[in-house]
Amino acid sequence: MLTADVNKIIPLSMVDGPGNRCSIFFQGCNFNCKYCHNPETINMCNSCGLCIPHCEYGAIKKKNGKVIYNKELCVNCDSCIKACPRNSSPKIVKYTVDELFNEIKKYSPFITGITTSGGECSLRYEFIAELFRKAKTLNLNCLADTNGGLDFSNPIFSNFISQTDGFMLDVKAFNDSTHVDITGQDGEIVFKNLKYLAEIGKLDEVRTVLLDSVDNEKIIREIGKILSLYLKEKSIRYKLISYRPFGVRDEYLYLRGISEQEKIRLQKIAQSYGFTEVILI
């Protein structure tokens, strides 16, 4: 039976794709981005128990060597997350596909679709393919928010790709050294996925966080060169996102964003490649 660890569910979201959506954040990520706003989704809990003394409400306990989370007692103060030394969270709920589908059904009259995020949702590609298949019986649009760190052209992802209506792809840097510096991983596969998803008509959105220490113009121009041909056939949103320190780990708070004037200049560059919807956030 397929199961997956879920960090949190946002029942009604207006920022994770078009319309009103249910957003599901899966636990675990293959990147370690410096400016990650959800660093507690990166690693799996190893039941070290260091978070337990920080919970004043008894929502976290240890049983048979494993940390147990009681959602009913939790007040979401996040003291346990702040105490975790390994970018994880004890507040993880393991779902079967049917259990998560039944949770989504509660919100289905009020939403237009669901978005899977994380962490990195594509690490749970088999689970999500089945979840999306069931969600379509409720006439829900199904999107995946991904870092593109897995090779989606590999046949093992074919069911996941076919069940997904569209992908929102983060492109964080261009050259390998910068990508490794920001994410801890090489960026070649991300650009391979950028082209592949555009070729099959499944790329709905590209996202880039703008840092003053990165050659943002080069990133945008390289993305534009790859996608300009496909933009003639299908509109693809491009979100240029201001760096914000909220949620970022203390050791990376030295990062800085760019000016509003520079953002507008970069927006015009993106538009010159055929992007008709360039959103500044």
Report the oligomer.
Answer: single chain
Mean pLDDT: 94
List the uncertain runs. Answer: none
Write down the secondary-structure element order. EEEEHEHEHEHEHHEHEHE
Widest beta sheet: strand line-up: 5-1-2-6-7-8-9-10-11
So how many helices?
8
Total number of beta strands:
11
Categorize the overall geometry: globular
Measured by DSSP, the beta-strand proportion falls in 15-25%
User: What's the main sheet like?
Assistant: 9 strands, mixed
Gyration radius (Cα, Å) is 19 Å
Secondary-structure class: alpha/beta
Gap between N and C termini? 40 Å
Residues in helix, %? 25-40%
Architecture overview:
The chain is an alpha/beta fold and 281 residues long. The protein has eight helices and eleven strands. A nine-stranded mixed beta sheet has the order 5-1-2-6-7-8-9-10-11. Helix 2 packs across helix 3 and helix 7 packs parallel to helix 8. It is globular and about 60 Å long.
List descriptors.
22% strand; nine-stranded mixed β-sheet; two-stranded antiparallel ribbon; alpha/beta
Summarize it.
This protein is α/β, with parallel strands linked by helices. The chain is built from eight helices and eleven strands.
Which secondary structure elements does this structure contain, and how are they paired or packed?
Layout lengths: L2 E11 L7 E6 L33 E4 L2 E4 L9 H5 L9 E4 H11 L5 E6 L6 H11 L5 E6 L11 H6 L2 E5 L5 H8 L4 H12 L3 E8 L5 H16 L5 E6 L17 H13 L5 E3 L1
Parallel strand pairs: 2-6, 6-7, 7-8, 8-9, 9-10, 10-11
Antiparallel strand pairs: 1-2, 1-5, 3-4
Helix pairs in contact: 2-3, 6-7, 7-8
